What does this fold into?
Amino acid sequence: MELSDEITINAPMEDVYAALNDPEILRQCIPGCEELVQTSDTQLEAKVVLKVGPVKARFSGEVALDKSGAPTRFSLTGQGNGGAAGHAKGGADVTLETLGDQTVLRYDAKAQIGGKLAQLGNRLIQGTAKKLAAKFFANFAKVMQQQAA
It folds into this structure.
């Protein structure tokens, strides 16, 4: 499964980049996130509860960040295990571009799932993934606006 989108955020690129690397801000923005702990400069551990169709699961996972292109680009890879519900792994490439006093954030993400989740059908999974991504970025834009105020 692949997802890509673009969002314009009313904040300077440096602020957007810093927020994307702040575990507390990310915890607030990730749908269903119960816990997000930074274990090193480039590693995070997460606990997230997700409902996909009839399947609800608590995922525990790890995310690794590659900040070598900072602050205009970075990538992340991760994997999570939801027990009997299944597992997921994937990654995303994120680019940031200054547009006046705003920042354009673009992402290309890929994910693979297995277990019960994989049996639900591609359309349901793709639709849920798009909704979760849209909710994350809507939450993120709201947090950035609150910080600017």
